[in-house]
């Protein structure tokens, strides 16, 4: 088992923002290192600030949040790591 801390980053479209914010708050209350951001660009920044060379990242969300920007940033980051 890894001793590395788990971080959850909750990104949302403005309409359901309260739900994602609430999930992040509940995760923090349970001891998780959760971060709430309100759009994909901020999610990219949050992920890139925390990512390490051996990390495994799961990007899960709806198309309305545009998380493909997060995936693209992770791919670019990974290509830079292997160069």
Distance between the termini: 28 Å
Widest β-sheet, arrangement of strands:
1-2
Radius of gyration: 13 Å
Largest sheet: 2 strands, parallel
User: Which secondary-structure class do the elements indicate?
Assistant: alpha+beta
Coarse shape: globular
- Give the H and E element order: EHEHH
Strand residue content: 5-15%
Strand runs, count: 2
Indicate the percent of residues in helices. Answer: 40-55%
Please report the number of helical segments.
Answer: 3
Catalogue the unreliable spans. Answer: none
Q: Please state the average pLDDT score.
A: 78
Write a brief caption for the model.
Helix content is 47%, strand content 12%. It has 83 residues and is α+β, with helices and mostly antiparallel strands. The termini are far apart.
Secondary-structure blueprint:
Layout: E1 7-11, H1 17-29, E2 33-37, H2 40-50, H3 68-82
Parallel strand pairs: 1-2
Features:
single chain, 83 residues, alpha+beta, two-stranded parallel ribbon, 47% helix
Question: What would you say this structure looks like, in words?
Answer:
The protein is 47% helix and 12% strand. The model has no long low-confidence stretch (mean pLDDT 78). The protein is built from 3 helices and 2 strands, in the order E-H-E-H-H. The protein is globular, with a radius of gyration of 13 Å. The protein is α+β, with helices and mostly antiparallel strands.
């Amino acid at each position: 088992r890894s001793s590395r801390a788990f971080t959850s980053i909750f990104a949302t479209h403005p309409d359901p923002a309260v739900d994602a914010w609430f999930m992040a708050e509940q995760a923090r209350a349970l001891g998780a290192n959760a971060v709430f951001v309100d759009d994909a660009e901020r999610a990219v920044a949050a992920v890139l600030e925390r990512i390490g060379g051996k990390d495994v990242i799961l990007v899960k969300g709806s198309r309305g949040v545009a998380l493909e920007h997060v995936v693209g940033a992770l791919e670019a980051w990974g290509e830079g790591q292997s160069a």
